Amino acid sequence: MKPGSDRSEVWELFLYIAGETPRSVIAFQNLKDICNTHLAGRYTIEVIDLVKNPTLAEIDQIVAIPTLVRKLPKPVRKIIGDLSNTEKTLIDLQVRPAKLKNATQKDHRDAS
Asked: Domain of 59?
């Protein structure tokens, strides 16, 4: 099954940042907006500040910040940057946009 196809699956997302820089704050806000719109009620976000815990970068092999790591659903995916390009972020995360989901559901209802 492809990620994003099961509406009940929980998405585990880890955002690696380095302090509260403007870019980190923007990345977190963009991530929250994307999740609220496209994964409502089906996600967890853990923010990992590498200034406070630098050794945690080794676990997920973080080489740039901010970096978003999707651990679930598998496979693990990584996105570097502030996530400001919503369409690209959705594609990289393999999330079907909410508008597309609603249109698909409507098409299925119309066909019945």
From this structure: 11-111
